[in-house]
Amino acid sequence: MEKEIWKKPLRQCSVGGEALIEGVMMRNGNKIATAVRKSNGEIVVEITEHEPLAKRFFLFRLPVIRGAVNMIESMVIGMKALMDSAEKVDIEEEEESGFEKFLKKIFGDKLFQVMLYSSVVVALIFGICLFFLLPNWIAGWFGFDKSTTGGSILANLIEGLIRVIIFLMYVWLVSKNKEIKRVFEYHGAEHNAIYAYESMEELTVENAIKHTTLHPRCGTTYLFVVIITSIILFSFVKWRSPLVNMALRLLLLPLVAGVAYEIFKLAAKTGFKPLRAISYPGLMLQKITTQPPDESQVEVALAALKAVVDD
Hints:
By secondary structure, the protein is an alpha+beta fold. 63% of the residues lie in helices and 8% in strands. A hairpin with a 2-residue loop joins strand 1 and strand 2.
């Protein structure tokens, strides 16, 4: 399995994707395609064009900066695709509440955009509070002297350990949900399809499904690299009052995301084993966030992939 993960692909590509509700989203260059299987068995494919911010603004192409920008942009695109997929799979809709009718009167046709960006903001706030601010607050409970250099480093390391534990527990808990497990299966199908494309194989279900579901360019691995990077960078920050600590972590978060992005991209390409080791915990975590798909799920992933590649 590990040999396939680190084997140099026959085709170098930047195709990436995301698992959706009963579907898969694929991105390649300016093309974005979503493929969703409806309740009647039909696969609905939708293709849109999106020019990344990095192509439009030179500043956003610079190392480190591009990582933070890419993370936010990917969240917006991914959230939109997820919400679109929920509408396409014929989920039985409940009668609109009075509050929903009220929102429609205020925002009209722009309600979807408002919900989309609100969801991204809420997801960001939740993630920052759960994985960055909460660990710092808990680490502050430990009674040793944090004003010394050694005490400050120890407090930061304890904070980092708590962050890892919370992250692992969160992933494990959400994986127990039946609907999320289906999404994780589509996540595995997404990786199967990309491996087949990188191996220059014919894009068939039979060729794709034989590959591993663990991929070095997966977002799960990136998130884990973000956490490891935060532990290293925050260890150089002197421990202060709780409010100052939290403010510093918020200010440093774009730097953490940017540095982690550069490490993540380099680790996915290099043959240097010590650098690969940074990605290894994230790859092991994919054993939870990706699950073996069935043939019908791989078929959906291939439909999305074929829509964004030239072959």
